[in-house]
Amino acid sequence: MTPAPMISVVVPVYNEEAALEDDLRVILATMEAYGQPFEVIVVDDGSTDGSAAVAGRFPRITLLRHPYNRGTGAALMTGISAARGEIVVMTDADGTYPNQEMPRLLNSIGEYDMIVGARTSEQGTLKALRVPAKLLIRWLASYLTNTRIPDLNSGLRAFKREIVRQFYPILPFGHSWVSTITLAFLSGGYTVKYVPIEYYPRKGRSTFRPLADTYSYLTHVVRATMYFNPLKVFFPAAFILLFVGSIKFVRDIFFYGDVFYVPGSTIVILLMGVQIAAIGLLADLIGRRGLPLGRRESDQPAARGERGRDKQT
Whole-prediction pTM value? Predict the structure, then answer.
């Protein structure tokens, strides 16, 4: 019989002393009961509280440390780089995720490339700002990837390690790492499944910055899509300019009657539309030539079929 693959659980930590011990106990108990070889890697991202000391009390856990705070994404990549498992499970250490649900995610990882724990409620601080911002970003990401995304930036997910390592050059160091990796998998043709999970109020102080992190999410959503499918960004803009320019062109012909005259503004609008479409095609050509990240175009139909099936789950 083929031996079961090792599973690496990676936990980024920054000043999570209040919740870390309980989370680690749940993770260890859950993974031991699951019955496959596993390791737990805690990456202390420059904490100034006792988080590192808490993790150090567990002999079963590997503790890695950053000398200063570099960001959640940087901590995750440090942990993934050190992981020995073929499959990586990531989770937060703030008490918000039901880590006892990890087996539900792992049970589908053979068929899919990534399993995301899709939260069924919002328990974060500043809900009046977070909920509309998340809805907007999720809508934009769904449009740009042509995929329904129930939860773009969940911190509980399982994925195949070698796939994620391919995307290192485009992954950010901050909170938007999770949204970017979701877009990278979807845009790169990999299969993603969403499993509904509960979400709890966090323990301790949140490091989320409403304005700065929302802006970061938006820019990384657009940047990731520009990398994989720039036509989704350029073609709508080109279409709008060409449509407006064409309407104005027809209007100008009728307005000036027998004299054939087209104002310079109309020509500028039409030329802008053509130029933006040409830039989009050039960007798409460059992106296709540099697609060692993700799957080639020949692999896309099967991947899209899987994504279509995800919509029904």
Answer: 0.76
Q: 117 and 152 in contact (C-beta within 8 Å)?
A: no
Q: What are the CA-CA distances from residue 179 to residues 68, 129, 184, 258 (Å)?
A: 23, 18, 9, 57
Higher pLDDT: 203 or 85? It is 85
Q: Which residues contact 275 (CB under 8 A, 6 or more apart)?
A: none
pLDDT in tens, 107-129: 989 889 999 999 987 655 556 66
pLDDT at 66: 97
CB crowding 249-285: b at 16 or more within 10 Å, else e: eeeeeeeeeeeeeeeeebeebbebbeebbeebeebbe
The mean of the pLDDT values for the chain is 84
Calpha distance 136→131 (Å, rounded): 9
What is the distance, to the nearest Å, from the Cα of residue 83 to the centroid of all Cα atoms in its chain? 20
Distance CA 104, CA 302 (A): 24
- Tell me the mean pLDDT in the region 98-103: 96
What are the b/e assignments for 217-227, b being 16+ CB within 10 Å? bbebbbebbbb
* Alpha carbons 76 and 176: distance in angstroms, whole number: 12
